[in-house]
Amino acid sequence: MNKLYIYLLALALLFVGCSEDDLEFEPHNKLRIDNAISSEDDLRKAVDGVYAGMTSSSYYGAHFLTAADMLGDDVVNAYYASNYMDTYANYDWSAVQCETSLYRSICYYATDINLILELAKDLEETETKEALIAEIKVLRALIHFDLAKIYGPLPVNLGKGKITANALCIPLLDEVKERDDIEGMLRRPVTQIYKFIAEEFEMYIPLLPTGKITDGRLGQDGAKALLSRIYLYMGEYDLAYKHAKDVMGSYALLSADSYVDSWKNVFTTESIFELIITDNEPSYASIGYYISGHPTNYSGHKEMAASTSFKALMNQDPNDVRNGIFQYYFGMYLPAKKYPGRDGDPRYNNIKVIRSSELYLIAAECKLKSPTAPDKVEAARLLNELRDHRTLTDPAKYTSATISIMDILHERRLELYAEGHRAWDLWRNQMTVERYSGMITDDYEYDKSGGRIDFDDYRAIYPIAESQIELLPEQYQESQQNPGY
Amino acid sequence: MKKIPKWRSIPPAIRKTLLFMKFSLILFFTFSLQLSASVLLGQDVSINTEEASLRNVLDDLKEQTGTYFMFNEDDMTASIKVDLAVDNGTLKGVLDEICDQTPFKYEIIEDFVVFTKKAPVLKKKSLQKKKEVKGIVTDKAGMPLPGVTVLVKGTYIGTTTDINGNYRIEVPADVSLLTFSFIGMQAQEFELSGSVQNVIMIEESIGMEEVTITAAYGSVKRSAFTGSASVVNAEVLRESPDASMLKALQGKAAGVVVTTGGQPGAMPTVRIRGIGSLGGNQSPLYIIDGVPVLVGDFSGIQESSSVLSMLNPEDIESQTILKDAAATSLYGSRGANGVIIITTKSGKAGKTKVNFSAEYGLSDFANPHVLDIMNTKELAEYAFEARKNQWLHYYKMLPGQENFESADIASAEAYAWSKLQSTTGLHHPDDKFDGTFDYDNMTEDQAKEIVSRGKTTNWKDAIFRVGKTQKYDLSISGGNEKNKFYSSLGYFEQEGVVNGSAYERFSGALTLDSKINNFLSLRISEKLSHSIQEGADDGYGNYTPMGAYAQITPSSPVYLPDGSINMTPGYISKVSNPVHKQKYNSKVSKITRALTNLSVNVKFTDWLRFETTNSIDLITTNAKEIKDPRSKEGSADGGWVGKYAYFTTSTVTSNLLKFNKQFGLHNLSALAGFEHNDYHYESSGGEGHKFASEKLLYLGNAAVPQSVYERKIQIALTSYLSKLDYNYDNKYYASGSFRRDGSSKLSADSRWGNFYSASLGWVLSKEDFMDSADWLNFAKLRASYGTSGNLPIDAYGTLGLFSVSGTYNDTPVLALNQLENSNLEWEKSYTLDFGLDYRIFDKVSGSIDFFHKHTKGLINGTPLLHATGRSSVTENKGALINKGLELEISSENIKTKNFSWSTDFNITYLVSKVDKLSEPELDRPYMTEEGKDVNSFYMREWAGVDSETGRPSWYLNTLKEDGTRDRTIVYDPTDVEMVFLGKKGYPDFRGGFTNRFTYKGFDLSFLCTYSLGATLIDYEGHSYSDGNNIGKINLRKNVLGKHWQKPGDNAEYSRLIFNAVEKGNYGSSRLLMNGDYLKIKNVSMGYNLPKSWISKMNLEKVRLYFNASDLYTFFKHDHIDPEVGQDGYAAQGYDLPTLKTYRFGINVNF
């Protein structure tokens, strides 16, 4: 062998350098943020990404969806269940030990939205783009509203009881926040956050698509319906009524005999805004699977069941079709038929975020409470109309003479069970969640609430996790935590 | 992007050359290896030449016969010509003819034909005077030694001894010196005095300092090594029962901690010199035969799996653990957690050796009480008391409560009886398990019968079994000075203690070393293995055997009276029957690994060499998970199958120029090199459900395909390295190294890092003034300082990314995945090491090391305000200090002809502290805070059980204004402040000692490991205390009878109240326990059959052995294995516990 040749080989190998290019890799399944959104189509996919996030299990997929039920008095968390739904169930949280996944996810989605808005600035201005931007901004306002309910007092309660008028809520997530922008990430007063939410809705609703929407996105009707709910929480009853009235006519109530089965279907006539969960996103961490108690194939976690007081409510009217959403399982009534899933698989339920029956209830409540145009006749009529679609018993039960907020709450309990309303319904009417009947019952074995949670009880609002508070400069730490924690 | 692996960037012509060399080597072996001299010379040849150059003729002969010819280049000039005319002659005839025509003679040595010049004088004399010498060569014990090379000194004239140690050699009359050499024996030289020369060979007894250790990018005599390293060799490796050789390091080397679980093929945790990182990688770098290899879990779907288990320990010559910077900094960015260098076996010149071994073993839980849980009666009584006290507590009638005086015990008991069954799910003894027993209307008397005559099922036997291992290994090795080979085949099978868990491995290895010529040598090694791992799920969860075992109601039968399986054995209906699950469901990973390594060594001059090592480590995995439609897990889906394929390659090219020269007493060596490593990972898989038949559970048969995916990861590391070693008279040593690394894991701004080291050594014992110290055989002082690094784990962790894999309404979506983080850098360690290597009284040797390792810029997550859109960012922040003392002693206590006793002892003292951290980080149950020990427990302080009331109590520990803590005892843990308890998870001292005895053919060794100063946390313990979790999991038997029952009791557990409403289960110092232990880790006994018996069968060595591992632990708590990692986390609860293993085997050499 030629020695020189070997020499050359050696030197060649020794000094085969490596260029920087050999050290630059990008993942195959992720796009660099800088070049992710370069067309309208990309923008649309990014907007869809926000919807996908909203179906996660900590949000509409399961936990948030039933937060107010778990906080309230209608639902028990079966004590030998897996406790996947404990997040909001047992008043067992403290600033040190509390669930933060919803807070985290919502901040994540808001940042996602703000980044998208930033990146979309370079795209050509078109109508499509404008509509997509409007859609995503309304979604941003909606996620603010959802988070605000858990971390701040309800706006209608400001200044009432122990709740101060300038109580804090959540940070305003209207732009991408840099790490050192502490001021920009401080929690803002409830008033400011709700003002932002309402203004964003009002401003962008006209740009959204109209008519019935069945691809799981938010259109004008859905946004108006949600805004109606938001105004109800804000105590703006006239505005809430106006938006409810605008939409409810186009979404006919289901008949009593089709009611229970309608939960198996998607985009029913009642459904105004619905998030889609397809068969391709199988998840056991889903509302249907958490609730389901299928006795033969062992699936499901049996996480929520009717409380003793709710069972009593059901017994008042055995003819009410809404009792039919419950499935009996070893002494428990599980609302399994509300989330039965498609083809018998409880994992796949579209999430009906808002339905027209709720608008009837909102409208009735607004007419009852309106400071400028109270109308008890209309309130009773609306309640009776809903009732007419749910039970054969006493269709004209409510009259303008007797109707009260208790009637509305009664109907809301029955109609909106396991849809995330109960505790907030009580608290925004300055009422108390009462969970104990005074004896040892099996209802709330693990409950740490002591039985009564008044609307101004500090536990009606979740703590900000201590670990988050500790990241703030000293001067903010005390003021940024919710009172009582 | 265009990506060409580095080895492919070699010019094609050179690649071709390399390939050719590889093939010719293989051919060469095929033909020449096993030829005896007579066969060799008898080979047919035909040759017809006139005036041909002898060189060309020999080339021709080599072509024809494959025989290799050796000659002195200077003698074999082109002018030497021969005329030959042979048709179908023998090689011998041709060679004889050649020798007649030329001034050469030939000899057959091994299977070479060696030409040497005839002595001119002899040629003239034509009559050469010769004499015959013969004799027998034996070892010290008088056993004949076959295969000893006997050579006339300074010539190629020689022979080897036969099977009986006899030799006979004809030597020229004027020859006076014969040399005898044999591997492992001291070479001997004898002046010829007669015709009989018997020789006794003496074993080479070499001090520790003479051992050659494999260090970074080369090997070096220990006496010349200025770094800190421990070596564990093949014999010792064999004492461990595990599939992986890592377990064999347990207790054998100072500063090395290895912990393992009970799952076959599982991943051991290896830590070197303390706790190297908080949030980053803590595992050492593994180098096999010069190249970094893939480690980790490549099973895809198993709970735990280690690809290192695929390397047959039988193929390993030694493991060297490099610890200090002098030793590791040449591995730069990956050396900070230490380096384990694995050297595999290669052939040795001499007789071909065959080694066969077979082994059979049994394993069971090392800790006999680890699975003790309550039986039906015990659980019922326990629950009864808890329910009774719950009632009393609610009505404030327990001691210390306001209505205690008017306690209504009868009502409380009635309540407890009424709740007993629904609380525990325990079955009435008359329950026929056909659904007819009316539990809803159970009477109090019936409830009492659960206690008085409730039945208990032995679930332990139903779920667990005695594990089995079997192992067969065959290796053949040998060769001559030019070509050596090692080849092996191995089979290993282990059945785990959980039904359905198993590990099976087939392995083969081939290593060829060839010296092509004076300046070129090469080595090819191939390790091929295939493993099949079938794992059981691990951890808490109703689907794991361990979790299910804890959650099953003890009165539930495995099978119902009608013979069918009991599908609801737990009160919590989700618990699957583990027996049923094990029967139908499976998780199987089939992994194939090929580790191919080609190195070429070019010797330009005596002092300059070039080495290139190129390897490809290829791992493919085929994994499948089945949830049978008949099983609970699969029933909802109508059967479920997931099938996955993983393909991983790591290619390394390492190219070194090595310089080594002596200038008088000055010795200088240096190396410079370039290395590039490309890592490439791809996987794809699919899942589907709904199957027509449970007999055909193949993904393609799924009626509903669920998901498909494809993943890919690429990582690259480029390095430039250099090293300079100098010594004067092998007495004063100095060396320095420098390495520059660039990693694709970091952003362009921060990806290049520099690493260096400097070290000094002084062989004290060589100094004149030490001459008088006869007792001192060797002493060397060393000092080193240097840096090494640690890379972040995530391949793309610094990039800002949108994920594209999500969907909404079945259309693809973009969603924020992570934000850019381009500031991330290496974690860097600065290690100072002072050491002493010694050997005294010709008996005791070892080393002492003091080390101080300062790790800065820790890769760690910093929590962020969620409003930033991230919950944390990975940053370089904080610093750790690990310092300590390591001591290794090896002593040959007694050595006589028939008996010997030796002891190896090692101990490590360690302090691991957080040196810098801007904000303390709570990581329950630890707090990481500047100035504190790593893994310091930070919890509520338990004040015991109030002996009058039985309430749990804690110290308040709130900080008072004067800076002291409020020591008030309180009864609500939520009021209490958590504090540092002055306890930490890692031990102060840890180590092991081995004693070895031999008596005639018998040998016995036992290894003990120990640990002092650690605190363990029994994390699951809180689940079992004070009435918590009744009816959710069955409770550990060891809590029985230990709870408070009446005033005056000094109880360990507080009064039992259902759901532990007094919160005694809250995490507090009550979960901590002293972790000191002593463990009989390994006992090994062997017997070597007498040579006189086996030599008749032509065998060299036959050894029968028995080995027991994890035999017994001296520890206070008999349900916990204290041999845990550095965090003190006693993982006894739901992880598969440690196993003890008994093995029997036979080892045959010939």
Produce the secondary structure layout:
The complex is a heterodimer of chains A (485) and B (1150).
Chain A: H1 3-14, E1 30-32, H2 40-54, H3 67-71, E2 75-76, H4 101-120, H5 127-151, E3 168-171, E4 187-189, H6 190-204, H7 220-234, H8 237-248, H9 256-262, E5 271-275, H10 287-291, E6 305-306, H11 308-316, E7 327-329, E8 332-334, E9 351-355, H12 356-369, H13 376-388, H14 405-415, H15 422-427, E10 433-434, E11 452-453, H16 466-469, H17 474-480
Antiparallel strand pairs in A: 2-6, 3-4, 5-9, 7-8, 10-11
Helix pairs in contact in A: 2-4, 2-5, 4-5, 5-6, 6-7, 7-8, 7-12, 8-12, 12-13, 12-14
Chain B: H1 12-32, H2 37-41, E1 44-53, H3 54-65, E2 68-70, E3 81-90, H4 91-101, E4 104-109, E5 112-117, H5 120-125, E6 130-138, E7 149-152, E8 158-160, E9 166-172, E10 177-181, E11 188-191, E12 199-200, E13 212-215, E14 218-221, E15 229-233, H6 234-237, E16 256-259, E17 269-272, E18 285-288, E19 291-292, E20 316-322, H7 325-328, E21 339-344, E22 350-365, H8 376-394, H9 409-424, H10 444-453, H11 459-463, E23 467-479, E24 483-495, E25 502-515, E26 520-534, H12 545-551, H13 578-584, E27 586-605, E28 608-627, H14 632-635, E29 640-663, E30 666-689, E31 704-728, E32 732-743, E33 752-763, E34 776-790, E35 801-803, E36 807-808, E37 811-812, E38 815-818, E39 827-840, E40 844-856, E41 859-863, E42 872-876, E43 879-895, E44 899-916, E45 921-923, E46 926-928, E47 936-939, E48 941-945, E49 952-955, E50 969-970, E51 979-984, E52 989-999, E53 1002-1012, E54 1015-1017, E55 1072-1074, E56 1077-1088, H15 1091-1094, E57 1101-1114, E58 1139-1149
Parallel strand pairs in B: 2-5, 6-12, 18-21
Antiparallel strand pairs in B: 1-3, 4-5, 6-9, 7-8, 7-10, 10-11, 13-14, 15-20, 16-17, 18-19, 20-21, 22-23, 22-58, 23-24, 24-25, 25-26, 26-27, 27-28, 28-29, 29-30, 30-31, 31-32, 32-33, 33-34, 34-39, 35-38, 36-37, 39-40, 40-43, 41-42, 43-44, 44-52, 45-46, 47-51, 48-49, 49-50, 52-53, 53-56, 54-55, 56-57, ...
